[in-house]
Amino acid sequence: MTLYGVGLGPGESDLVTVRGKRVLENADVVYSPGRLSRSVALEHVPEERIGDLEFPMTRDEETLRTAWKAAAAEIAPNAREGDVAFVTLGDPNVYSTFGHLRRTLEAFHPDVDLEIVPGVSAVTAFATALGVEIEAGAGLSLREAADGTAPTGPDRMILFKVTDAPATHEGLLDAGYDVTYGRRLFMEQGETLVTDDPSELADRDYYTLAYAERRDLEVESATAVFTQDGDSAVDPNDDESASDDERE
Ligand SMILES: C[S@@+](CC[C@H](N)C(=O)[O-])C[C@H]1O[C@@H](n2cnc3c(N)ncnc32)[C@H](O)[C@@H]1O
Predict the structure, then answer these.
(1) Can you tell which superkingdom this protein's organism belongs to (predicted)?
(2) Per-residue pLDDT for 18 more than 60?
(3) Domains of the chain, first to last
């Protein structure tokens, strides 16, 4: 049978995909690595089917390896006998704890079948929440900005783990970026906040990201040339060289 890594999306229970919901409903046991993913899973699965796993709050690599070995040893027999799910917020393959489990299973229980159900990642959900468009052709980089760090370089960046927004903000401003922050986007737990003022985010909250865009960035898009009277409008559907797929 199978272990499913199920992405739950950013935190609102109706942003779980149809496939993810079906897998959760059919799984014999559903494991979660934390309180938030557990509470989203509970919207789709009765509590008696939620499995228990212990994860220490540490960055010590040896302690983490031991904890993931124990988690894999608990999950593997159940995944051989039936279908089980391991849920994570967002997508299981993006900055996710699921990677630890997958690697540990591959090392110690390679016979367990794995299948992944993608989820709505904060990497994409941020755009709607912050009212940003990443237009076709634009580059977009994902970085981590924990503890006040401010990575720079690309024209556009999504920064995860913004735990000291005022310090990160200073670095980004100096490097020539405009920055918008999003906290607890599409999450049922806690208050959603979208702001470009880092002082509103002075308290640490792990579920905070930033979108940084170079101040002098020029956007090149066919419809960016629309004028108020519509004179220079270009209809992308008039591009006969574009296939149907390219218009999606
Ligand atoms: C370890 S990563 C997990 C990413 C997740 N697997 C995904 O695909 O969205 C955690 C970081 O993602 C960002 N994040 C995830 N969900 C978020 C949300 N709902 N609102 C704001 N930031 C979020 C935060 O920067 C947080 O520190």
Answers:
(1) Archaea
(2) yes
(3) 2-120 (3.40.1010.10), 123-214 (3.30.950.10)
